Amino acid sequence: MLKIIIPTVMLIPLTWLSKSNMLWINSTMYSLMISMTCLPLMNQFCDNSLNLSMLFFSDSLSTPLLMLTTWLLPLMIIASQHHMPKEPPTRKKLYITMMILLQIFLIMTFSATELIMFYILFEATLVPTLIMITRWGGQTERLNAGIYFLFYTLAGSLPLLVALIYTQTTLGSLNLLLAQYWIDSSTHIWGDSLLWLAYMMAFMVKMPLYGLHLWLPKAHVEAPIAGSMVLAAILLKLGGYGMLRITMMLSPTINFMAYPFMMLSLWGMVMTSSICLRQTDLKSLIAYSSVSHMALVIMAILIQSPWSFMGATALMIAHGLTSSLLFCLANSNYERTHSRTMILARGLQMILPLMAAWWLLASLTNLALPPSINLIGELFVTVSMFSWSNFSIILLGINIIITALYTLYMLIMTQRGKYTYHIHNIKPSFTRENTLMSLHLVPLLLLMISPKIILGTTY
Amino acid sequence: MFRGVLWLLAGRGCVGRGLSTRSGGSTPDWTEKVSEIKKKIQSALPGGPWDPLYDTSHLPPEHSDVVIVGGGVLGLSVAYWLKRLEKPRGAIKVLVVDRDHTYSQASTGLSVGGIRQQFSLPENIQLSLFSVDFLRNINEYLAVVDDPPLDVQFNPSGYLLLASEKGAAIMESNVKVQRQEGAKVCLMSPEQLQNKFPWINTDGVALASYGFSMSSSRMQTSSGKEMTLKRIHEVHVKMDHSLEYQPVECALVINAAGAWSGQVAELAGIGKGPPGTLEGTKLPVEPRKRYVYFWHCPEGPGLETPFMADTSGAYFRREGLGHNYLGGCSPTEEEEPDPGNLEVDHDFFQDKVWPHLAHRVPAFQSLKVRSAWAGYYDYNTFDQNGVVGPHPLVVNMYFATGFSGHGLQQAPAVGRAVAELVLEGQFQTINLSSLLFSRFYLGEKVEERNII
């Protein structure tokens, strides 16, 4: 693990000591190289984990997420190049440092063995994100957005700290690998339910669960592009990852606690998809679609069946790439027209045809077109949900339809039709932007060939 | 709709979160105080944009989709129609800026307030027809729930245009065009004129066209700041208010600045280039001062008085029910008054306006001028007709200005046309492509054949 962490830490001196004209190139290239060093982690025993040290390990659940994290850093840096150049060099470097810091925390979070270390880093990821949103976000609402983001997540995760410390004192160790083998006594007391709640709430807020999702549209919309990308792609998955790990530790007798959250997720999935149909702001639409997809993941994790775990993991990776791609596309629109309203920038297919191709592919993966990995995730979740309860298929089916509806609505609104007059002289797509989009799409499309690497521990 | 426009003008660009003051409170003072307190609490609580350093709620927002420069009747009309025609509700954020919220020099408030459909250009006729319909059914468009219905003091008395021998042929062909477009006009001979309006002296009148029209004199309110624009291809608008400065990022700018549209266009870099090229074509709108006089004549014409325009160019209309009249005359090119200030020249009335009035309406030989004021025409020096639509080079600047004295009467229709252009990309209801900016460069004049 150190071979990933130390180079990432050394990216910080790289940023600060680079010359201004080499800043972006250096950071992009070196972070790409670091993502390559993450690949060998894939080579591991599929029935167990790769125990690298006392502190770090990686198994088939954390490896795809680690790959996604390290892959995303160069993409974030590429995406930020346009709106950054007017800032003084110190601020640019600070921005990149925030991104790198976030990256370090995320890598360590995903590979942590000790749950307290996981918790500390989980909380630590909030700080650079908050700084990115409030300092470099677009509008005055970002301050509000930052506060919502911070306090929702903090309030949700304080009970987690208490629960972890309690478990540490009762169990003696919070090593994740050992905790899997912890056999719990069968009779349960109501305190167990509280413990379950305490464990889960932090991740529910992070996912986000439908009732606690208010911070997400605000944070995603007001964040700068790199912030939106990392929020959508990785930070949401922290919740999913945490839930996947913790459910192995919790007693199976209190699984009835999952029901309220199942209901909230089922209903919330349909609700947020419907809200997407009404959105006029492009980024807001993508943010709500994130909530909808993550609701599927929550449901899958809560029903705890092998297929659903596979679906959840696949969906997390697929959604990470797709959502990040959609945000980059929306940002390329925003940089040209300076407005996020969809109806002011229409008919882009005529003007930027290659970008229209990326839009098309992004929309197709977003609506889970076969054989993309989004479909694999959604399909596995749907099938396992059906076996859990026959009636859930109705809501899941409605959600799939509405997802297709709003994705196509977004595609048609921005790409098709007669273009508005005032966009006919926007700058054509930069190579940088095309690179960004294709770097998102290439993993997404290549994973179709061998999705087993993202299917997680129960494959 | 009207409330939507008001909230937009308050600079927030989002539908009010229950910051309503329409609680039907007992006295205005009380509701004022309550709304102040509500505003203070609102700014402290989460849920809105706030800056921890200082209160910025009086500044315009940092971002708006459309910025309309000029808060007169045209600017507000465009804002209204943009919000009314958008399909998903709350899609577009509109910001209207004006440099003077008292409207002391705005043409809107100083206008005589007449509407006619007797134009020679079909587009003008259609614009006026729709505006007439708008004003007639104003409560359908602008009424606010729980408020008393609007009364814009709409007097459908008609508009009477007189033509001498020379102008008779033109008037006839105009009337034909007007009838084709659907205006209700009738041509009258001097005898018929004498029968209908006994107080007219039909000396020298060959033909009269009498059409449907009205006058209105009330306006709606808004807020405002000053602004500067940046150049071609860039979409930043900066706001200035005393020393405070708020850059408003926007996607579109609509120039509805009336008499000062030329200056605003220059700020955007329109017209900076070698003359004769498209870059060098300026927006030919400049302020021209016009006087309006208000007099009392006890034996003057009564209730059936139309808005009368004499062959000499003098015009007048009835105001109220007490034998008061408003009127004036367009000066010839040589006697153009200096538009630097809004001082009234009373000798102009004595020398130029009164003789013609007295000739046409003998009762006006004895009248007493009660007051007078001056206002600006946003005079289009090229062809005295409005400019509507985008600029070919500064792609996100739209014009809605230069109507040279008939802006007020065509404002609702022009607002709708510009909103359609922004939202749909083309004119849907009235095709104003002959009024685009490019005609200045191509040299195609779109002229009206009788100007007041």
UniProtKB/TrEMBL annotation, chain A:
It holds the Pfam family Oxidored_q5_N. Residues 1-109 form the NADH:ubiquinone oxidoreductase chain 4 N-terminal domain. Its EC number is 7.1.1.2. It is found in: Mitochondrion membrane. Residues 112-402 form the NADH:quinone oxidoreductase/Mrp antiporter transmembrane domain. It catalyses: a ubiquinone + NADH + 5 H(+)(in) = a ubiquinol + NAD(+) + 4 H(+)(out). Belongs to the complex I subunit 4 family. Core subunit of the mitochondrial membrane respiratory chain NADH dehydrogenase (Complex I) which catalyzes electron transfer from NADH through the respiratory chain, using ubiquinone as an electron acceptor. Essential for the catalytic activity and assembly of complex I. This is NADH-ubiquinone oxidoreductase chain 4. It comes from Myotis lucifugus.
